[in-house]
Amino acid sequence: MSPSSSDFLTIRHPEPKPLAHPPVYPVFLPFIGCSYRCIYCAQDVQTGVGNRAIAPGSLRSLLFKELAGSEPVELAFYGGTFTALPQELMLAYLDVAAELRQAGLVSRVRCSTRPDCLAPEVLALLARSGMDLVEIGIQSFDNDVLAASGRGYKADAAVQGCKAVRASGLELGIQLLPGLPRMTPAVFARDVAAAAALAPSVARLYPLLVLEGTALARRWRAGSYTPWDVDQTVDALADAFLTLWRAGIRVIRAGLAPESTLDDAFLAGPRHPAMGQRARSLALFRLLEPALAAWQGPVRLDYPRRFQGELWGHRGELVPAYAALGLIPGATTPHPEPWEPDCFRLSAVEAPAGKLPD
Ligand code: SF4
């Protein structure tokens, strides 16, 4: 490409726009419905609520008090295998959600579960009882990884679980765990592509950490499990973001939420306070890289201000990589609205602030 002064190139960021959904209000029910504890799982420390699941009656009292006077929320039953609960208990939790919905305090409901606990009659019951979205802890679609991680199901069941949720009319969420035993970045990339092909509404990516008290901790101490490192994980997540965004899928979380109990239990693995930002920044770099590499002559970049915290990476870690492609911080302009929200524009001339070149 050999631009004249009027040449410019527009690159659109592929991340889907956020939906106008209410904020998620998580209700953690640790290990509820789980028939055994998975090798890496420490819901009690991951969620900071300990080992005991709150009973439906107590939950009702708590939420009517806590949510009173606030905007409606999306109630999320997390931390266990919700669809494997005894039916009476499941319906009791859903009744609480329905009462809160009737009172105008809840406008959506979601739950998390495993892919092998999604019988059609249970999904039909959820759909009838006000559930909107089911998040499945798929973790991987690779049979070797699933076997080495003791997940107790195969890739076919993972795919069928996703299809069953969509067939029941419920929205689908998929969770993946990069770094599971026997998982390589190439396997994770295939997992991400498989997830994208199943068209979930949302995805979560939880790089695997070694936490005290888990079977994985014993394997790590025995030297039979090595976690991914931070850079490898950021690299894999960046590609995953791009694949999922390009398929129209929102990535609603990358990495576990910070919890003081998690700090205490953390032993090893890719944990970084800015993991998501680092991965998003690297994804943006990879989006712009081909155009910058092909650009000849001086280049400047105009971009939406909302990406200002991502462009140069965490603490400017991507500045040298951009400089190697001819882009330096002094040749960039962040634009407030009405700049197009997803538009990055390379040009040989300075664009007027706040306005796209014609
Ligand atoms: S099914 Fe989910 S919540 Fe239950 S032990 Fe396994 S990872 Fe933890």
Automatic annotation (TrEMBL):
<keyword id="KW-0479">Metal-binding</keyword>
<dbReference type="InterPro" id="IPR058240">
    <property type="entry name" value="rSAM_sf"/>
</dbReference>
<keyword id="KW-0411">Iron-sulfur</keyword>
<dbReference type="Pfam" id="PF16199">
    <property type="entry name" value="Radical_SAM_C"/>
</dbReference>
<dbReference type="InterPro" id="IPR051198">
    <property type="entry name" value="BchE-like"/>
</dbReference>
<dbReference type="Pfam" id="PF04055">
    <property type="entry name" value="Radical_SAM"/>
</dbReference>
<dbReference type="InterPro" id="IPR007197">
    <property type="entry name" value="rSAM"/>
</dbReference>
<keyword id="KW-0408">Iron</keyword>
<feature type="domain" description="Radical SAM core">
    <location>
        <begin position="21"/>
        <end position="257"/>
    </location>
</feature>
<protein>
    <submittedName>
        <fullName>Radical SAM protein</fullName>
    </submittedName>
</protein>
<keyword id="KW-0949">S-adenosyl-L-methionine</keyword>
<dbReference type="InterPro" id="IPR023404">
    <property type="entry name" value="rSAM_horseshoe"/>
</dbReference>
<dbReference type="InterPro" id="IPR006638">
    <property type="entry name" value="Elp3/MiaA/NifB-like_rSAM"/>
</dbReference>
<dbReference type="InterPro" id="IPR032432">
    <property type="entry name" value="Radical_SAM_C"/>
</dbReference>
